[in-house]
């Protein structure tokens, strides 16, 4: 039974759940493909799906060194929004939002996209001015955005400490109502299933260990399961971009790999029905359907490939949460983990042809790439299929760092840990 529906649920209930098929095949590598995608994270899988569904290219393999969802796509805190300041970013992320809105139907897989809003809290008059500016920039692009007063915020999130004597009094906030969350694993599984149904081979436990070259031209990959040839090789390995590009002889990338942690508490009764961000530090929180609070903060602040973080950051994030919600002081933390982010020099991504002939590159997602998964896959597939960028990723080139045409949404300069 390949199609999910209410009818298929009922039928399976009566047949002891014996009719369900595996969500994707366990494909064996073929000697050659039209396109190989290195990295079975959200971006690699969505690229494969759109290559097949939008561009009719189905002789495609996704090579994943571990299992699907073992990277950041299965480790993130699932916030989806498009409230960026600069037009290159907000247009791209708004396109992603359009794709999110129909994704469960398109994939016939419930990705649990929930448009519960995202509220950025402001704690100083200058920050409120800055949010008003961002809200105006968004509205100028036709993207929803709303400046909220403290009274409106108190009605929206009654559990917040709204007193004037709070450690960081709340002076207002910027709300994007179309923002929200999605179920991270379901996004990976849904795209994998969609791509598999269109003929894409998804090959897990297949690590790319080198690139096959004819002069400069990339002609395939060496893997832990043998050589595989391809007319086009696309790299979408997020935090491992530096390591993988080194295999192709490219020693320096404008990317740093840094650890970002996530935290989940025990289940609580529903009290928070929006994604909330704290303005006086780096802290954001949402409540899952199971009731747990899912939250995170800043990067650990050093380069690492370890998928776990350190205690000083844990303490910082907890104290930020308690500054907003003193009533959560006795809530127990259930789980925490880390992911390896691909922090770019200007905080914006790279989706491009090259840097070698026959190669295509997708990276630089910092800690915001989950929300980009649909648009990234769509635009990367376009770039691979047509050998030129889609208008929405034309600015996300690699050579922008040589040309000085950086897209620095936060205005932080070349300090990847601050983007
Ligand atoms: C704790 C945390 C919280 C986050 N929160 C958010 C959020 O709320 N909202 C948001 O939008 N974004 C968030 N992000 C960022 C987001 O998760 C990433 O930007 C995005 O998932 C990266 O793209 P991906 O899914 O393709 O990466 P990944 O899932 O990491 O995929 C890359 C894959 O490449 C594979 N790979 C690496 N090397 C090789 C090789 N040699 N051969 C084969 N395969 C290889 C890896 O195993 C991995 O599976 C968060 C990230 C973290 C870590």
Which SSEs are present, and which pair or pack?
Elements: H1 6-14, E1 32-38, H2 42-55, E2 60-63, E3 79-80, H3 87-101, H4 103-107, E4 118-122, H5 125-140, E5 146-148, H6 150-156, E6 172-176, E7 180-181, H7 184-197, E8 201-203, E9 208-214, E10 217-223, E11 226-235, H8 241-247, E12 255-267, E13 275-278, E14 283-287, E15 292-303, H9 311-324, E16 333-344, E17 350-353, E18 359-363, H10 373-386, H11 400-403
The structure holds flavin-adenine dinucleotide.
Flavin-adenine dinucleotide binds near residues 42, 70, 367 and 368.
How would you characterize the largest beta sheet? Answer: 8 strands, mixed
Low-confidence stretches: none
Looking at the structure, what is the overall shape?
globular
Average residue-wise pLDDT: 96
Based on CA atoms alone, the radius of gyration comes out at 22 Å
Percent helix range: 25-40%
Ligands (ions, cofactors included) = flavin-adenine dinucleotide
Q: Would you tell me the structural class of the helices and strands? A: alpha/beta
Strand content: 25-35%
Q: Count of helical segments?
A: 11
Which sequence of SSEs, written as H and E, runs from N to C? Answer: HEHEEHHEHEHEEHEEEEHEEEEHEEEHH
Assembly status? single chain
Task: Please report the distance between the alpha carbons of the first and last residues.
Answer: 45 Å
How many strands appear in the DSSP assignment?
18
């Amino acid at each position: 039974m390949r199609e999910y529906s209410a009818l298929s649920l009922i039928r399976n209930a009566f047949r002891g759940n014996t009719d369900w098929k595996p969500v994707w095949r366990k494909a064996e590598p073929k000697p050659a493909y039209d396109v190989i995608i290195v990295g079975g994270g959200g971006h690699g899988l969505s690229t494969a799906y759109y290559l097949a569904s939008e561009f009719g290219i189905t002789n495609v393999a996704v090579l994943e060194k571990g299992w699907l969802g073992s990277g950041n796509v299965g480790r993130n805190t699932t916030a989806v929004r498009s409230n960026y300041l600069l037009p290159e970013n907000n247009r791209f992320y708004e396109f992603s939002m359009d794709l999110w809105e129909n994704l469960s139907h398109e994939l016939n897989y419930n990705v649990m996209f929930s448009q519960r809003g995202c509220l950025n809290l402001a704690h100083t008059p200058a920050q409120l001015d800055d949010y008003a500016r961002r809200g105006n920039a968004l509205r100028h692009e036709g993207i929803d955005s709303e400046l909220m007063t403290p009274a409106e915020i108190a009605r929206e999130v009654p559990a917040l400490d709204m007193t004037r004597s709070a450690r960081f009094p709340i002076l207002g906030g910027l709300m994007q109502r179309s923002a929200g969350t999605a179920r991270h694993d379901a996004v990976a599984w849904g795209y994998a299933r969609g791509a598999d149904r269109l003929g894409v081979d998804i090959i897990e436990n297949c690590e790319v260990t080198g690139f096959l070259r004819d002069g400069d031209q990339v002609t395939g990959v060496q893997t832990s399961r043998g050589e595989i040839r391809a007319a086009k090789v696309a790299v979408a390995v997020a935090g491992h971009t530096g390591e993988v590009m080194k295999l192709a002889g490219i020693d320096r990338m404008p990317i740093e790999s840094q650890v970002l942690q996530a935290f989940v508490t025990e289940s609580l009764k529903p009290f928070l029905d929006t994604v909330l961000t704290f303005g006086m530090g780096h802290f954001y929180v949402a409540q899952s359907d199971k009731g747990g609070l899912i939250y995170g903060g800043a990067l650990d602040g050093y380069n690492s490939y370890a998928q776990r973080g350190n205690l000083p950051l844990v303490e910082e994030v907890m104290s930020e949460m308690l500054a907003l919600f003193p009533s959560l002081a006795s809530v127990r933390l259930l789980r925490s983990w880390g992911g390896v982010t691909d922090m770019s020099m200007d905080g914006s991504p790279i989706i491009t042809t090259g840097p070698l002939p026959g190669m295509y590159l997708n990276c630089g997602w910092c800690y915001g790439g989950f929300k980009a998964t649909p648009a990234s896959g769509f635009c990367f597939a376009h770039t691979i299929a047509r050998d030129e960028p889609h208008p929405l990723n034309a600015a996300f080139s690699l050579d922008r760092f040589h040309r000085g045409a950086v897209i620095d949404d936060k205005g932080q300069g070349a300090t990847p840990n601050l983007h």
